[in-house]
Specification:
InterPro entries (chain A): MetI-like, MetI-like_sf, UgpAE/MalFG_permease
Distance between the termini of chain B: 75 Å
Strand content of chain B: 15-25%
Low-confidence stretches of chain A: 1-25
Order of helices and strands of chain A: HHHEEHHHHHHHHHHHH
Largest interface: A-B, 49 and 63 residues
CATH topology of the largest domain in chain B: D-Maltodextrin-Binding Protein, domain 2
Membrane topology (chain A): Multi-pass membrane protein
Helix content of chain A: over 70%
Oligomer: heterodimer
Helix content of chain B: 40-55%
Largest sheet of chain B: 7 strands, mixed
Shape of chain B: globular
Protein name (chain A): Multiple sugar transport system permease protein
Family (chain A): Belongs to the binding-protein-dependent transport system permease family.
Number of strands of chain A: 2
Structural class of chain A: mainly alpha
Keywords (chain A): Cell membrane, Membrane, Sugar transport, Transmembrane, Transmembrane helix, Transport
CATH class of the largest domain in chain B: Alpha Beta
Number of helices of chain B: 17
Chain lengths: 316, 445
């Protein structure tokens, strides 16, 4: 990287300009481009262009000419696709389902993550490295693999957990219509708690020890230090993990898609992303594009809304 | 200076890149194909065909062809990961292969996407009609309006039964659906952990096979419109029948077809039968080796005295739009799907049950199968194959309809609504999805 950058700089900067550049002015375009291109080109090709294409598609409608298997073409349709998204009851029930999921799962997960981070940060706990690695480990498991693993643990035919609970007279139905949302939430929590914990934990690590000493001199208990000093200081990290979790929740796909293989209680429109995928697989790319754009807007509004709401308190 | 120049250059490159991409995308709108028959001229010199499929071992079959035909070489690509996604994207990009595997139920959908070319200008293609089981040709030729694909395999349905369980509880193997229900009640009464079969709400393809058996004519074309009749009396009869079995808890609804969980339930002797297709014979043989000798295959239960059977699955090899070698494609496609040597190899390596009449008489399909007590199970499937309604037709948005049907059937299985409601939902979805694709449609009478 550095090599390329230097070489690129040399190539565009005449030797005489060297002093001026050192003085802080002068054209550094070559350097800038060399550094920015590796990011900008993929960003353009794999982000801006697809997003632009989706936006463009979302304003198109299919028309057809002639006969039973007439020829299809697309034409400008204004907001027709968006109108359909807003009338689509399945879309709104998937949003509602995911909202319920998020309202419960995100706070539970972050609370557990915060508790674990605070515990790891106390001098009382032994074997810290072990606990830190163990808690983080599920994050290293790909989401699809985790979902497959849990789907075995949920299956009445195969699960040792279901068998054990059966032995003490319980008959849990983890894949039933009422439980399936929470079984999915459980997988997400298992996967992401360690990750969120680590973000909070590294924020805790950067708090200067002097603060704690001062607090102790003032007679603060460990509890008071955790609640009154640590949590407020790492509030920006908590906000950050919340925003990540909101985005993750709205984009939920892999876990329910895997569970769908063994439970018909996850419909093809269970989450907004699954709905978009189902619509696209039926060749209705324009409608799928409009759904994707609406999901993106909702994600944007919610995550930035949350950041604005909390920015003053969190000191962001 | 240099800043301005580079910045401008970069902007130009970026703009060119996006325009090229957008142009590449929008060009797909120009579907100039008019499904009229394409000319059928042999090429001069050597030709290489692309053939996409999802069949295990198909490369070996193609090797056999390539050895015999140095001037028509075929390259295969396995697209079983995402068959229709891969094909759809290739079509959009104008890079479809010459030939591709397409399921019968996806033929109308892909044809409305202008995916096929009509090969009826090739004599060999039209002459192939007599080589295939009638219903398969009817679907591949869209009721004889052209030759868009050659049938490859089918899934004639039959009933897989655990003879030992039926014997143990002294229950006769059912011949009609009424007897099937009575037997289900008897078995469940004798052992409450035992059910007759399972109903997989997420398997519209299977349910469609049951509808097909009862001659549910779901789609037709009249008055310049598709006539959608998913909610016919024949469909309702099937839906009400299975709804009753579900409500009476005579069938389970918690198992997905082919899942580990399903095999576990069979392994634990919890299920006594399986309404399956020809390709399913190897599923039980390979996944439940300990139950060898306990299974028999008998004709599918019938509706009253009507002996009609159903089909579940199977595929064609379609002639794709953009192929420059139609003549050679027809030659290869005909060989691939009707030559006894090719069919024998496909059956051996890929487990395909042939759509060709010649295939039904293959030596491998005339022998007893050890797993099934050396019964000649393929005689049952061959008989079933000939009793499948030839006028059944699929809709142009079948996949979307299937998904909606599944979601509604799952609700019914969970006690929210009935299977008849699911048919209503499928009917509404069919009309809506066809409207979205600008396909003229109306509710049939």
């Amino acid at each position: 990287m550095t090599d390329t950058a230097t070489r690129a700089t040399r190539a565009v900067t005449p030797p005489g300009d060297r002093r001026r550049r050192l003085n802080g002015g002068g054209p550094r375009a070559g350097t800038v481009i060399a550094f920015v291109t590796p990011f900008f080109l993929p960003f353009l090709l794999f982000y801006l262009v697809p997003v632009g294409y989706a936006l463009w598609q979302s304003f198109r409608v299919v028309r057809r000419s002639g006969g039973q298997y007439g020829t299809s073409y697309t034409t400008f349709g204004g907001f027709e696709q968006y109108g359909q998204v807003f009338q689509n009851t399945e879309f709104w029930s998937s949003i509602g389902r995911i909202a319920l999921f998020g309202i419960v799962q995100v706070p539970v997960m972050l609370f557990v993550a915060l508790t674990m981070a605070l515990l790891l940060d106390t001098p009382l706990l032994k074997l810290k490295a072990f606990f830190r690695i163990t808690a983080f480990m599920p994050y290293a498991v790909p989401g699809v693999i985790a979902a497959i693993m849990w789907s075995y643990l949920y299956s009445p035919q195969l699960s040792p957990i279901v068998d054990l609970l059966g032995d003490i007279g319980l008959k849990p139905d983890f894949l039933g219509p009422g439980a399936i949302l929470w079984s999915t939430a459980n997988i997400s929590t298992w996967l992401w708690t360690g990750y969120n914990m680590l973000i909070m934990f590294s924020a805790l690590q950067s708090i200067p020890q002097e603060l704690y000493e001062a607090a102790k001199l003032d007679g603060a208990s460990n509890w008071a230090i955790a609640w009154r000093i640590k949590v407020p200081i790492i509030a920006p990290s908590i906000v950050l993990t919340t925003v990540f979790s909101i985005i993750g929740t709205l984009q939920l796909y892999a876990e329910p898609a895997v569970l769908r293989q063994i439970s018909s209680n996850i419909s093809s429109t269970f989450t907004p992303n699954m709905l978009a995928y189902a619509v696209a697989s039926g060749n209705n790319y324009q409608q799928a594009a409009a759904i994707s754009v609406v999901i993106a807007v909702i994600t944007f509004v919610l995550s930035f809304g949350f950041m604005r709401l909390t920015s003053k308190k969190a000191g962001l | 200076m240099s800043t301005t120049i580079t910045r401008t250059r970069l902007a130009v490159v970026a703009a060119a890149a996006s325009i090229a991409l957008l142009a590449g995308c929008s060009s797909s709108d120009d579907s100039s194909d008019k499904t009229s028959a394409a000319p059928c001229e042999p090429a001069k010199g050597k030709v290489t065909l692309q053939y996409w499929n999802t069949v295990p071992g198909m490369d070996k079959v193609v090797d056999l062809w390539n050895k015999k035909n140095p001037n028509i070489q075929v390259e295969t690509k396995n697209i079983s990961n995402d068959q229709y996604g891969t094909l759809g994207n290739a079509l959009k990009a104008g890079k479809a292969p010459d030939l591709s595997q397409v399921g019968y139920d996806e033929l109308p959908n892909l044809r409305t996407q202008n995916a096929f070319v009509d090969a009826s200008a090739c004599k060999e293609a039209t002459a192939a009609k007599s080589k295939f089981v009638p219903w398969t040709w009817s679907q591949a030729s869209f009721g004889g309006t052209g030759v868009f694909a050659m049938p490859q395999d089918t899934g004639p349905m039959a009933l897989f039964v655990r003879s030992d369980i039926f014997k143990k509880y002294d229950v006769a193997v059912p011949k009609t659906w009424d007897e099937y229900e009575a037997a289900a009640a008897k078995l469940h009464k004798a052992d409450s952990s035992l059910t007759m079969t399972f109903f997989d709400p997420n398997n519209a393809e299977w349910f469609n096979g049951l509808l097909w058996q009862n001659k549910a004519e779901m789609y037709s074309y009249a008055d310049n419109k598709w006539q959608v009749n998913v909610e016919s009396d024949q469909s309702k009869q099937v839906a009400e029948y299975w709804q009753k079995l579900i409500s009476d808890k005579l069938v389970r609804t918690d198992l997905a077809n082919g899942s580990t969980q399903m095999y576990a339930a069979y392994q634990k002797d919890q299920i006594a039968s399986y309404v399956g297709a020809a390709w399913g014979y190897s599923m039980f043989r390979d996944n439940l080796p300990k139950q060898a000798g306990k299974w028999s295959i008998v004709p599918m239960p019938t509706w009253g005295t009507d002996g009609a059977s159903g089909d579940w699955g199977g595929s064609t090899v379609a002639f794709m739009k953009g192929s420059k070698h139609l003549y050679e494609s027809v030659k290869f496609n005909t060989w691939l799907n009707s030559d006894p040597e090719a069919l024998a190899l496909e059956n051996k390596l890929g487990g395909l049950y042939p759509a060709a009449n010649a295939g039904l008489k293959l030596p491998a399909l005339s022998q007893g199968v050890p797993y099934y007590n050396n019964e000649k199970i393929f005689d049952v499937f061959a008989d079933s194959s000939n009793k499948i309604d030839t006028s059944f037709a699929w809709g142009p948005t079948q996949k979307t309809v299937n998904l909606a049907l599944q979601d509604a059937m799952a609700k019914a299985a969970a006690g929210d609504g009935t299977l008849t409601d699911a048919l209503a939902k499928a009917q509404a979805t069919a009309l809506k999805s066809m409207k979205d694709q600008a396909i003229p449609a109306t509710a049939g009478k």
